[in-house]
Backbone:
């Protein structure tokens, strides 16, 4: 399971939890403007916007999980098992494989409005990166500071949803996730009034009673509700430190602790949580065992270069000793 979200303070932030039972040796990668991006069925992008995000690099190709480009457009792929359905190539359309989708979008566009238009000609084609790295069943969130989209390639074709909550988890399809929020209209940050019974005296014996009914389990539909509630009600100061801290607290509300979600003989955990300041291009992350934030700054490399800068994750716990 995974969760991706947006948050705006003075700057805008985009990031995600990557929840999985194993790692593909993730690394933060900066792709500069002149790194040649080959596409299997579309024209190569030889010059494009630079981007920073989480990847597995295979055969010199940055396979992005989530990223932000130098214009602040951001995108993340999240698991969408049983629902993702990729298509055969269609002549006259932009035929893009799922593993190419993030660089193809972030390489060319600045805003969600531009992306929405480009998606009218898009087919997500069933072409694997390699035999070792086959197609992943994914759906995507694409965001700028103002708005978000969810893109799902399903049996019926390509679905592009406006995403008014700027948040995505996993199954079921996005229309159902949004509809399900109707069930939580009475959940509140304020203490409840007794509407349960006119005859009973009910006491607000604890803080937080307004949110009773908010799901606490780790299923993707429950995480969607919990994370939307947290994000919608989030408050922070405007400084970088306050906003980034708040962002990781939103993701922390739906993180997965080892031992709680069984997958065969393993357990899914939050392998990393990320938060990119989409205005400055600083990509912060923490990992399951390293609670300290590590940061990679898009603008600290030569963005007119043609080779990748790759930073393997710092995964060991960093303890600051105080005495
Ligand atoms: C599995 C990951 C998503 C995590 C997630 O949503 N987990 C929830 C599982 S579930 O709903 O509860 O089943 C996705 C996100 C990005 C994916 C990776 C990226 O798409 C990049 C490449 C793409 C290649 O085709 C496959 C390997 C891969 C390296 C992908 C492996 C895997 O599918 C990743 C890591």
Residues:
């Amino acid at each position: 399971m995974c969760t991706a979200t947006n948050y705006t303070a003075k700057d805008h932030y985009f990031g995600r939890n990557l929840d999985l039972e194993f790692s593909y040796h993730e690394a933060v990668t900066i792709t500069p403007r002149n790194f040649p991006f080959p596409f299997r069925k579309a024209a190569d992008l030889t010059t494009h916007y630079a981007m920073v995000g989480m990847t597995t690099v295979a055969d010199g190709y940055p396979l992005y999980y989530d990223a932000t480009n130098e214009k602040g457009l951001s995108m993340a792929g999240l698991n969408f098992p049983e629902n993702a359905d990729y298509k055969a190539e269609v002549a006259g359309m932009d035929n893009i494989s799922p593993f190419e989708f993030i660089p193809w979008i972030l390489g060319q566009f600045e805003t969600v409005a531009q992306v929405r238009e480009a998606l009218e000609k898009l087919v997500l084609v069933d072409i694997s990166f390699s035999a070792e790295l086959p197609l992943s069943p994914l759906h995507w969130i694409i965001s700028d500071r103002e708005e978000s989209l969810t893109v799902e390639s399903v049996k019926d074709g390509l679905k592009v949803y406006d995403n008014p909550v700027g948040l995505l988890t996993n199954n079921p399809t996005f229309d159902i996730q949004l509809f399900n929020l109707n069930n939580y209209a009475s959940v509140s940050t304020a203490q409840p009034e007794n509407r349960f019974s006119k005859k009973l005296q009910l006491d607000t014996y604890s803080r937080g009673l307004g949110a009773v009914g908010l799901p606490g389990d780790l299923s993707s539909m429950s995480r969607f509700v919990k994370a939307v509630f947290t994000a919608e009600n989030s408050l922070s100061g405007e400084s970088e430190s306050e906003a980034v801290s708040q962002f990781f607290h939103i993701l922390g509300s739906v993180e997965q602790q080892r031992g709680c979600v069984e997958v065969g003989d393993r357990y899914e955990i939050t392998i990393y949580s990320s938060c990119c300041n989409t205005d400055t291009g600083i990509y912060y992350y923490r990992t399951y065992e390293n609670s300290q934030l590590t940061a990679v700054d898009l603008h600290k490399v030569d963005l007119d270069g043609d080779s990748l800068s790759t930073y393997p994750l710092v995964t060991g716990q960093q303890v600051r000793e105080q005495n």
